């Protein structure tokens, strides 16, 4: 084979891959799927566990032309097909695989999922397949055709399948790979379990040829009655009329889009502001052509003024708790409305008006129930610890996850803070990386506050300083500290003072200590409830004396699994810093914090 021909083929190969890669991006994200006509694909899915990715690569590790995504079957007795979804085992979707099958508890690799379904098109012109999330990388195929790939375990994605879906015998196949990667977001090391799988709802979404793809409706910053935002149509080929209605407020606004289906929105309205005390949600309908989309939206403003956080123009203290997206009683990834009501109900019982959803976007039930219950939310993307700051792909990945998070939840009144990072090391590359994310978030959403959970440093043995250079670009300074647990005995907190040079609000985004429920002993004995309660007592005294403190979200509400916690009979691969055990038992520290929050609520600091 001549050299030119080899080069020609290589080039063709690269172009095909590039073309395929481009073509394989998910379609623009459809929002408010709950308000649309959908067909759920949740339930039992057949699976093939494929640690060697045998269904994707050949023995030369070249991608197969016909892998497991073809769902092949022997056409005759002589045919050789070495896999068969239909006789394979099954898993629940939504659900992580680790907590459904003991053999998979520590499994990191590929599992193929298949769902067969018939589909009668309800007169709708277009159909999309929507995934609430899949951890970590998902390659999606319908009827043997590649739809595309999505990377990132905690944000939604969708593909258009209008031309592919048929009346009978459709098979949707998803290769899910949760292998950790150095260039990933998150990267190799996390203090949470790497739950893999189709962890959230999967559904078919029916829409007219032209439909309301997305809209953003919130109060303009600093105004009590000016609703500003935009509407975006999909499938518009000319200027279109869009009607926005808020019947309860007597609002009926008509706007006209440009040729691409985009229209800015700006109108005045007398709306009761959303707040934890009265979490008012309005029915809002956006209609265009044959499509009409309804959502429940609260309207409120959130700003800072010096070291104050202002909700609807009034100073507020964030009485919070951190939460991982884990189903406390059942174990495994939380995904349902009931899971959300349980976790957020416990936070309310604790006296919270705020929750930090750590360290990644939680499922949409969490933010919608927070809207309903009146809990303000810190929403974060998994830029956690030490990711590859210099890698453009890693930045693109983080930027996309941020965009998907904001796109999905931008109409949730409960969300007041977008967090771009947790405990990341100071340095120029990191600063540039995070500034890039902050700029992007501000472009996407001019109405909310930007923060990050940073680390403090010692100026001298008795003085803590919160002066991470990233603070200059943030609206609210987040700080994690473990005085009394990783840093000295509980009473060390009594001897510390805090310096926060910037004139900005401080939120202590993590503090706490480990304890095993029911393990009692001396206050100085680690892992006892008494030790944990003692840490909280001293912390509360210390925090009261930090002038710019405007909130806190101790680590952590409920139990969560962690591969970094092997201590037998105490941790057993659980991080034990929670206030409520995985049987719902409240520890002494729960009541220490509850008392403090009740006093705060009564205006006694
Ligand atoms: C860190 C980190 C958490 C972790 C916690 C802990 O601050 O942000 O993800 O679980 O400390 O050590 O318990």
Q: Outline of this structure?
A:
By secondary structure, this protein is of the alpha/beta class. The chain is 18% helix and 30% strand. The radius of gyration is 25 Å and the shape is globular.
Q: How many β-strands, per DSSP?
A: 33
Give the helix level as a range of percent.
Answer: 10-25%
How far is it from the N-terminal to the C-terminal residue, by CA?
81 Å
Mean pLDDT: 95
Portion of residues in beta strands equals 25-35%
Can you describe what's shown?
The chain is α/β, with parallel strands linked by helices. 18% of the residues lie in helices and 30% in strands. It has 7 helices and 33 strands. It has helices at residues 3-23, 337-349, 364-373, 392-409, 428-444, 529-544, 588-601, and strands at 37-40, 43-49, 90-93, 110-117, 126-131, 137-142, 145-151, 157-160, 170-177, 202-207, 211-219, 226-234, 241-246, 251-256, 262-268, 282-288, 291-297, 302-305, 308-311, 314-315, 318-324, 354-358, 376-380, 415-422, 449-455, 457-460, 463-465, 477-480, 497-499, 506-510, 549-552, 560-561, 574-575. It has an 8-stranded parallel β-barrel, surrounded by 4 helices. A 6-stranded antiparallel β-sheet has the order 3-2-4-9-6-7. Strand 24 (415-422), helix 5 (428-444) and strand 25 form a beta-alpha-beta unit. Helix 2 packs across helix 3 and helix 6 runs parallel beside helix 7 (588-601). The termini are far apart. Bound molecules: alpha-D-glucopyranuronic acid. Alpha-D-glucopyranuronic acid (GCU) is lined by residues 191, 359, 422-423, 480, 510, 555, 575, 577.
């Amino acid at each position: 084979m001549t050299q030119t021909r080899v080069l020609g083929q290589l080039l063709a190969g690269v172009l095909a891959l590039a073309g395929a890669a481009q073509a394989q991006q998910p379609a623009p994200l459809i929002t408010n799927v709950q308000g649309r006509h959908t067909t759920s694909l949740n339930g039992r899915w057949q699976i093939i566990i494929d640690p060697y990715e045998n269904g994707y690569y050949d023995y030369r590790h070249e991608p197969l032309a016909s892998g497991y995504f073809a769902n092949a079957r022997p056409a005759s007795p002589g045919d050789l097909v070495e896999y068969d979804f239909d006789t394979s085992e099954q898993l629940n979707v939504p659900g992580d695989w680790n907590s459904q099958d003991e053999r998979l508890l520590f499994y990191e690799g590929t599992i193929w999922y298949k769902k067969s379904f018939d589909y009668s098109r309800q007169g709708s012109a277009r159909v999309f397949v929507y995934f609430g999330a899949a951890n970590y990388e998902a390659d999606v195929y319908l009827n043997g055709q590649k739809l595309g790939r999505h990377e990132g375990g905690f944000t939604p994605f969708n593909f258009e399948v209008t031309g592919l879906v048929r009346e009978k015998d459709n098979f949707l196949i998803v290769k899910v790979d949760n292998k950790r990667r150095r260039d990933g977001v998150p990267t190799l090391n996390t203090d949470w379990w790497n739950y893999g799988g189709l962890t959230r709802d999967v559904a078919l979404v029916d829409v007219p040829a032209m439909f309301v793809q997305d809209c953003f409706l919130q109060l303009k910053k600093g105004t009590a009655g000016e609703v500003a935002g935009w509407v975006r149509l999909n499938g518009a080929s000319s200027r279109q009329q869009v009607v926005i209605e808020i019947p309860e407020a007597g609002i009926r606004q008509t706007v006209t889009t440009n040729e691409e289906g985009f229209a800015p929105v700006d109108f005045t309205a007398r709306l009761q502001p959303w707040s934890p005390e009265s979490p008012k949600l309005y029915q809002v309908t956006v209609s265009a052509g044959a499509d009409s989309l309804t959502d429940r939206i609260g309207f409120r403003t959130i700003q800072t003024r010096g070291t104050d956080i202002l909700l609807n123009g009034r100073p507020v203290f964030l009485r919070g708790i951190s939460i991982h997206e884990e189903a406390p009683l059942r174990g495994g990834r939380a995904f349902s409305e009931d899971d959300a009501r349980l976790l957020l109900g416990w936070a309310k019982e604790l006296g919270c008006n705020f929750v930090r959803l750590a360290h990644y976007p939680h499922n949409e039930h969490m933010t919608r129930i927070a809207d309903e219950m009146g809990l303000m939310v810190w929403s974060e993307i998994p830029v956690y610890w030490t990711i590859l700051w210099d890698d453009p792909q890693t930045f693109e990945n983080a930027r996309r996850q941020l965009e998907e998070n904001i796109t999905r939840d931008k109409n949730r009144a409960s969300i007041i803070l977008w967090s771009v990072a947790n405990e990341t090391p100071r340095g120029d590359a990191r600063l540039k990386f995070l500034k890039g994310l902050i700029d992007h978030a501000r472009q996407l959403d001019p109405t909310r506050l930007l923060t990050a959970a940073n680390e403090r440093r010692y100026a001298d043995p008795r003085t803590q300083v919160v002066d991470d250079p990233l603070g200059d670009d943030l609206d609210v300074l987040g700080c994690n500290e473990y005085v009394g647990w990783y840093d000295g005995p509980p009473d060390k907190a009594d001897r510390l003072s805090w310096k926060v040079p910037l004139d900005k609000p401080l939120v202590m985004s993590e503090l706490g200590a480990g304890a095993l429920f029911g393990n009692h002993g001396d206050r100085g004995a680690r892992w006892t409830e008494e030790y944990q309660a003692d840490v909280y007592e001293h912390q509360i005294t210390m925090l009261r004396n930090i002038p710019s403190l405007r909130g806190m979200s101790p680590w952590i509400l409920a139990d969560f699994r962690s591969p970094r916690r092997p201590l037998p009979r105490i941790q057993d691969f659980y991080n034990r810093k929670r206030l409520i055990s995985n049987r719902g038992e409240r520890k002494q520290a729960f009541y220490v914090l509850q008392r403090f929050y009740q006093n705060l609520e009564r205006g006694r600091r």
